[in-house]
Amino acid sequence: MKACPACGRLYPDDAGFCPVDGAQLTSATQVPVLADNQDARIGQLLCNRYQVRRVVADGGMGRVYEALDMQARRNVALKVLHPEVSRDPIAVERFKREFEVSKMLPHDYIVEVLDFQPTPDESFVLAMEFLYGEELRATLKREQVISPARMLRMLSQVAIGLDEAHARKFVHRDLKPDNLFLCQTHEGDIAKLLDFGSAKDKGEQAKKLTVLGTTIGSPFYMAPEQAQGLDTLDHRADVWALAAIIYECVVGRVPFIGNNGPSILLQILTKEPAAPSEAGKGQKYPVPPTLDRVMTHAFKKTAAHRIASVGALADAIGAAYGLTGTHLEWAKTTEAELANRVNAAMPGLLATVNAPRAANVADSFFGESDSLDAMGDPFAAVPAVPGLAPAVPGAAPAVPGSAPAAHTRRRTPPEATKSIRPNRSQAYRKARTRCSTWPSAAAHCSLASRS
Predict the structure, then answer these.
(1) What is the structure's pLDDT at 33?
(2) What is the distance between the alpha carbons of residues 316 and 321, in angstroms, rounded to a whole number?
(3) Dihedral angle computed from the Cα positions of residues 387, 392, 395 and 398, in that order, rounded to the nearest 10 degrees
């Protein structure tokens, strides 16, 4: 490893100059660590292995450092819990879980956690691979939206990583732009999933850390079942969250907007987001109408009606942008090549007109029109046939050429009406009841936030 004598940053052996301040790099072991009066850990050898070099970031749960692993001769990121957090046994257990889950996952598109140990000052430290780049949140804050090619490559890689986690019965539960890290290369970003400390283990022998009815995650990206704290939550909650991230990447804002936790929750439970092709008008990159249908399926309120996997979501979004093949291929395709394919298909995609759909009570409230409409309306009027009278229950079939029979109005049984028409006011009362439980849920949200 090499180090910058000016700022202390560590770099691979093939690097020559620090891109931050332009200083020539030298061997890391020959560069003294700059002392910091604000942080006594700088310069220390933690756990008799990690030489702490500098502070990288601060978070709600802890502080992140760059350190030199004196055994492996590589730079690592050290995440150390704040003193008050280290006294919370649940927080410590989640911290430790991030290390244990990491050992069971592949690391092409998931950050690798290398070690978990207590520190001399009675805290705990996670050592993980050091990543060069930035979080998706920083990219969106600076650029508001990202190009379709960059989004599709990132989405494809994240889908591969998440599908591997889901196959091992782990649900991330806290997908958000802050937990997607983009490592820039000349071929395009390499995406890395961060923070599996809040992951839900759906295995039969899994240890339960979340009290039934409480909520973990970030409100803007929560699926309805997650917002309600339901124990039935599974991998399809990650499908919703990833769809919300992609929506934000192409539109420039989250799909469900609110001023606080309860208002966001109410939007998630009772509203449908604006079609991305409409919400994204005026942005730097046009949004094809073909994406609207995909997002409708991804934001189904009922998990059983949602797109079944993150891989299927990535394939559908890629197809909406005119790509052929699957996300397994797109994840390794250069960003420039993906841009060429998307640009070639975009004129035809923008000319696509989505067929208008009839208003539906269930559609406007629950977002389940596809699943309900597919069943048909048992009480819809039968189309008239020229020369034939309308069919009436119990009446004899009409004979062509005969006088039309008197029409008897068909009445819908009250009990049938109740079964197909949701009680809107009742649903709103349930949503508000859920909102009243939000303060306790928000505490868990902050506990699970990434350092």
Answers:
(1) 87
(2) 9
(3) 10
State how far Cα 425 lies from the chain centre. 30
Paired residues of 182 in beta bridges = 134, 191
pLDDT reported for residue 261: 83
Alpha helices by DSSP H, 351-402: 361-366, 369-373
Show contacts of 62-67: CB within 8 Å, 24+ apart. 62/123, 62/451, 63/39, 63/451, 64/451, 65/41, 66/8, 66/9, 66/10, 66/130, 67/127
pLDDT at 450: 40
Q: What is the pLDDT of residue 197?
A: 85
Global confidence as pTM? 0.77
Distinct helix (H) and strand (E) counts, the chain:
17, 14
Q: What's the pLDDT score for residue 31?
A: 87
**174 is known as an active-site residue:** yes
Give tens-digit pLDDT for 26-78. Answer: 998 888 887 788 899 999 999 999 999 999 999 888 999 999 999 999 999 99
Structure token pair of residue 144: 């508001």
Contacts of 219 (CB under 8 A, 6+ apart): 227, 258, 261, 264, 265, 268, 442, 445
Which strand (E) or helix (H) includes residue 414? helix 414-420
Instruction: Kindly report the backbone phi and psi dihedral angles of residue 67, in degrees, each rounded to the nearest multiple of 5, phi listed first.
Output: -140, 160
Distance CA 197, CA 183 (A): 21
Check 69, 163, 174, 238 and give the catalytic one.
174
| Axis crossing angle, helix 310-320 with helix 148-167, rounded to the nearest 10 | 160
Residues in the chain, how many? 451
pLDDT of residue 32: 86
Provide the angle, in degrees to the nearest 10, between the axes of the packed helices 148-167 and 236-251: 170
Strand pairing partners for 115? 127
Question: Thinking of the domain 7-129, which architecture would CATH place it in?
Answer: 2-Layer Sandwich (3.30)
Q: Where do the structural domains in the chain lie, given as residue ranges?
A: 7-129, 134-361+440-448
User: Which parts of the chain register pLDDT below 70?
Assistant: 203-216, 355-451
Return the CATH fold of 134-361+440-448: Transferase(Phosphotransferase); domain 1 (1.10.510)
What pLDDT score was predicted for residue 411? 52
Query: Residue 128 pairs with which residues in a beta bridge?
Result: 77, 113
